[in-house]
Amino acid sequence: MNLKNIKILLVGIGMSALVMTACAATPTAAPAGGNKASAYPTPAQAATVAVAKIVTPTSGKAAAHGVIISADNGKPLVNTAIRLAEVYRQGNSDPIYVLNTASSPGTMSDGTGRYAISDLTPREYVMFVGDPTFAYTVIRAEDGKEKIWSLAANQVMNMGIFTVTLK
Amino acid sequence: MKQKVLRAGIAALSLATSLVGVAKADTGYTATFSTAVAYMNVGTGTAHMTLSYYPENTVTPINITLADLPAGGSSTIFASSVGTLPDGFKGSGVISSDQPIVATLVQISSGSGTTVKNRPLSNGFASGATGVLVATVLKERNNTNTRFAVQNAEASGNIDVTVRFYSASPFALVSTQTATGIPAGAAKYFDVGTIASIPSNFSGSARVDAVKSGTSTAAVVAVTALELGTANANASSFEGTSGGANTIYMPSALCNAPGESNTAYAIQNASDSASASVTVSYRSLAGAEVARKDATIAAGGKLSSVACSDGFPNGTSGSAVITSSGAPIVAMLKVYNQTPPNGAVYGLYTAALGATSGSNKLYAPFVRWTDTQWTATTRQRSYIAIQNIGGALNAGQVTVKFLDKNGAQVGSTVSNAAALGAGQKFSVNPSQAGSAATEFGYYSDGTSGGGMLIEGPSGSQLVAVVRVATYNADNGAMFGEDYLATAP
Predict the structure, then answer these.
(1) Residues of B in contact with A6 (CB under 8 A)
(2) Are residues B60 and B178 part of one domain?
(3) Is A30-164 a domain of CATH 2.60.40.10?
(4) Of the four, B3, B5, B53, B421, which is 20 to 30 A from B449 by CA?
(5) Range of the domain at B419
(6) What ipTM, to 2 d.p.?
(7) Across the interface, do A15 and B379 touch by the CB < 8 Å criterion?
(8) Could you give the C-alpha distances from A23 to A72, A122, B156, in angstroms and in order?
(9) Taking Cα atoms as reference points, which of A146, A155, A157 lies closest to residue A35?
(10) Do B340 and B377 belong to one domain?
(11) Is A6 touching B (CB cutoff 8 A)?
């Protein structure tokens, strides 16, 4: 790629991105404890999810599925964007995740809060629920950090059940 | 020192949450923000782009190849570090492209229990400048603090930055802050609320100068500022600017229209030695001057010009042209609700720089519309005010095309229904493009992206301000923030 000297300076990427810290340190008030508390579905829940959304990736690709629930009312979060941000690693720096709203893989949850994404490029992802320019949440692991899923070729990943609040 | 301050903020927030068992309401100032970047390919071919991502004061960026973007296409990226606990993360970035692009920053407050609903918007910079002015700087003034980022806009090498803070009345140097060794592309943050040498109730400006580290050679920087409420949830963003101009165009003038929406212009004398004789000429939608304010602003001083107070007719909307016969000026457009519709939650509160020049072609990288999810507050709407600052134009000569994420036009072309005199404006939104645009910028697969092209005849001079609004479920009003459409 022969990039010309056309640049746009972006002062403020991650400006006070302390936000990410605050999110993780103070789980949202939620009936099920926010996405942190319900990050891992029970076997029964996982079985239900698996039955509800079975996806098969094309050869060499991966697939993912799961369920999202509203922390506000405990009901399935319907018609909501599920997006997977690509993770980048370079040297010893903390990994970076980048969600491209026009091209990063994703889908919309259905009327039961379920979703399935197929034909994913095998790699590491972080999951967004909602619109990253407006109201969203990033799924986090129990340690409060963004949860990274590593999807391998031909793998079907059950992402689990998450109770979330979109902020 | 800054890291310690930030950690303290986190601890206080966490403690409050656990003690009371409910989410703590933020003010704009205590809220925490992350940034998304909306960008648009305004060239004629597919753009191949790289994002260079710089944690604060980092020497080596992380370079990320972005997905190719067709001509006219637009997208938004959200980038952050994984596992930045407990220190948080601040930084900056540079998008490099083989096609011309424009970009707008979207600041998103998403701390636990946040009540900050505005999404402050400001534009990215194609290049830096020397002697950048931050037109308005506040500390605990009108319940507002200013925070801004200074980015090294040089192609390579470190820079040393000096920021001088000046009070407006009387004009005086109040504080000087420095930062050294800022790598190319990286940024340094200045939080006026934490600078002890700046007194409370401060209202003034700041001038940012930089040199290449270890030399006296001037260096270029880019500056983005946030104005943040200290007793309310207000938040807005605007760009630093180099120098000033003697004519500034304001595409929006409001006096309780619609509802309780009002405009105020913060006009700053950009000279530190000469006074400015300023006239604010308010124009009706028909382009006629309907109110006027004349004032002299002392060197370095500021003037607040409120449409309703200046005689702009109640219940009307229009535009304004601000001229100075003396020193150059800079001016900011602020739009707000006269009375907060809810004691705890403000509504509309926006800021954008006034325009100093026009173009016959303007692009906006972040445009949305929803019919189905407006009151559900899960999608947004964009309202665009277009002002003709050149010679008179006939009806239909200014066209607006709404372009999807791949650059394809959505719906029909919208144009000015009536002739546009000099200084006159008209307003558009995506819904005017027809049923195809009822969910403009949103797609069934969960992706999003949409922009806009405004085009007038060759030689015409247009400016436009884009408001991205969110329904306020508390009171039926809206939140919103403005940014200027950009010439290619």
Answers:
(1) 96-101, 126
(2) yes
(3) yes
(4) B53
(5) 361-484
(6) 0.78
(7) no
(8) 17, 28, 35
(9) A146
(10) no
(11) yes
